[in-house]
Design goal:
Layout lengths: L2 H23 L13 H4 L1 H11 L5 E8 L2 E12 L4 E2 L6 E2 L4 H14 L20 E6 L2 E6 L6 H5 L13 H6 L14 H8 L17 H13 L3 H13 L20 E3 L5 E3 L27 E2 L1 H12 L3 E2 L2 E2 L3 H7 L14 E3 L4 E3 L2 H4 L8 E4 L5 E5 L4 E6 L10 H11 L4
Antiparallel strand pairs: 1-2, 1-16, 2-3, 4-9, 5-6, 7-8, 10-11, 12-13, 13-14, 14-15, 15-16
Helix pairs in contact: 3-13, 4-8
């Protein structure tokens, strides 16, 4: 290589590294009024969520609202640690649980775009243990096992119609005996692919394509990514999604130097208020996201992230697959992912359906809340949520850490307050 070519390439690499670093440290912000919001109406978010903290119903959180590729509202409220009275920073790290699913679903579609798989492929093409599966069907004796009516496909997994739950089905005792229950994986000293292979021998909760059954579908897709790419899932996501989008604070296990930024998990206390979740493994604990074995990469519920990082991912989707000059997906792929794939025979919910990794709004009147047809999103078990409204060019990210939380209608309130602030 000629010296001049070497230095030209070195210069380009340095420019890319610097630009990625700048992108990761800052977000494009705009004047709320110019973006179609009433600043006074948007400020109602402040008072509403501060009241939740004062009432002891939420510990704290971060809310980010963006429109037309610019951030209009980005605020941390309350505390990252109530006992220490540590204010919540905007850069706090949150366990995003099932919000991992959208990212891993994008990983599958990246591989389809490269011709390395098709979502219509049978799962057994990549994980042969799933060549023949069984279904537990409830009957007077408890349940009976019968062969699945057809093979599971990758599309079944993307739409949660493979019939695979989280172990809480008719054959629950067999899932318990196998040590596979619930969505929490951070304490496992076993690669995800090995866990998934053991799932194949367990009875599922429904026949493929017949029901929406929420469960290990995206964890299995993460294992498929490892098989097809030849990389551990954490490496694949870092190289193919997090790095290109400047998502420097998204990972399965928190780097030890960033651990002080991890928000504390709380649980509702008997009689009201919140109490600190215990340390250690488990769904209603702080989890092992810092001190765990760092071996199991749960594509269905294992990621930790920040509001800013997750916004970057969603802005890429809202832009039709591109962000900051980097194209991850074709616009046609984004369109495919964000339309309803469920047939009329699959019960999901009034005015809503499910695409390839996202819930989608199909009928405004039947859905009964603010939004638009074509809006898509989902949430996480630690009470986080997000949505993208392409018609309004709107993105909302809301992170908090309460598990479980059924006491406060903060998700509904958030939607009401965001849309009532739009005045253009």
């Amino acid at each position: 290589m000629k010296p001049s070519n070497f230095f030209n390439r070195l210069f380009l690499v340095l420019c890319f590294v610097l630009s990625t670093g700048l992108q990761a440290q800052s977000l494009p912000t705009g004047d709320p009024g110019a973006l179609g919001f009433s600043p006074d109406r948007l400020s109602r978010l402040d008072a509403a969520f501060d009241r939740y903290v004062e009432a002891g119903e939420l510990p704290g959180g971060v809310i980010l609202v963006a429109r037309k590729d610019q951030v209009a509202y980005y605020r941390a409220f309350g505390y990252a640690d109530l006992e220490a009275r540590k204010p919540m920073p905007r850069e706090a790290l949150f366990r995003i649980a099932s919000q991992s699913k959208a990212i891993v679903s994008v990983g599958i579609l990246l591989l389809q775009e490269e011709g390395k798989l098709l979502i219509q492929d049978r799962l057994s093409k990549y994980i042969p243990e799933f060549a023949e599966t069984t279904v537990a069907v409830s009957d007077d004796a408890g349940y009976r096992e019968e062969p699945a009516k057809r093979p599971i496909t990758l599309r079944d997994l993307l739409t949660h119609t493979a019939g695979i739950g989280y172990g809480w089905g008719p054959a629950q005792e067999k899932w318990e005996a196998a040590g596979i229950m619930g969505w929490y994986f951070a304490d496992r000293d076993e690669p995800i692919l090995e866990t998934v292979r053991r799932m194949a021998a367990l009875p599922n909760s429904a026949h493929p394509g017949e029901q929406f059954v929420y469960g290990y579908n995206t964890d299995i897709l993460g294992a498929v990514i490892e098989v097809v790419s030849g990389q551990p899932l954490d490496v694949f996501l870092k190289e193919r999604i997090f790095g290109p989008l400047g998502m420097e604070d998204t990972f399965f296990y928190v780097p030890r130097e960033k651990a002080p930024r991890l928000a504390t998990v709380y649980t509702p206390a008997d009689g009201g208020g919140l109490e600190r979740a215990p340390d250690g493994p488990g769904m209603n604990t702080q989890g092992n996201y810092v001190n765990g074995p760092r071996k199991s990469f749960s594509g269905g519920a294992g990621l930790v992230s920040t509001a800013a990082d997750y916004y970057r991912f969603l802005q890429m989707m809202e832009n039709g697959g591109t962000l900051g000059g980097v194209r991850l997906l074709s616009p046609r792929t984004v369109e495919l992912m964000t339309v309803n794939h469920l047939g009329e025979e699959v019960d999901f919910g009034p005015g809503r359906g499910f695409g390839l990794g996202f819930e989608v709004v199909t009928d405004m009147g039947r859905n009964g809340t603010y939004g638009s047809v074509g809006q898509y999103g989902w949430g996480g078990a630690y009470h986080s949520t997000y949505w993208v409204d392409p018609r309004e060019e709107l993105i909302v990210v809301y992170f908090t850490q309460v598990r479980p939380n059924t006491r406060v209608p903060d998700h509904g309130l958030l939607g009401n307050l965001v849309y009532q602030a739009l005045v253009d």
